[in-house]
Amino acid sequence: MPLSHHDQVNLLKDILSNQQTDCCGSVAEYQQLERLIKSLMVNTNVDGNIKSILQDVYQYSQNGVNASDLEQHIQTNQGQLSQWVNDIGQFS
Q1: How far is CA 55 from CA 2, 36, 42, 59, in A?
Q2: pTM for this one?
């Protein structure tokens, strides 16, 4: 059974929140973020306001996949992670 877009948004928020809190992540998590975002971007039921956030998170994910130091990548983006989690929470 596929995840609803609400479930996908909540999963996205959970991954970002965990990365922010734990200050660690994995390439697999970034790849999962990319898949979630691609699915949400084409879903017409997703609030248009969240799509600009999704584009930013997608860029963050791509940079994470290619980062040589994942912990540093997350630390560098702490402020953004916090903002994204809050913003996404308003739409989920």
Answers
A1: 22, 12, 12, 6
A2: 0.91
Q: Is the pLDDT of residue 4 over 80?
A: yes
**Chain mean pLDDT for the chain:** 92
Interhelix angle 48-66/5-22, rounded to 10 degrees, is 50
Contacts of 16 (CB under 8 A, 6+ apart): 33, 57, 81, 84, 85, 88
Query: What is the Cα–Cα distance from 80 to 20, expressed in whole angstroms?
Result: 9
Q: Looking at the 3D structure of the chain, how many domains does it have?
A: 1
Element (H, E) at 32: helix 27-41
Q: What are phi and psi of 24, to 5 degrees?
A: -150, 160
Provide the domain limits for residue 54. 5-91
Contact by Cβ (8 Å): 16, 85: yes
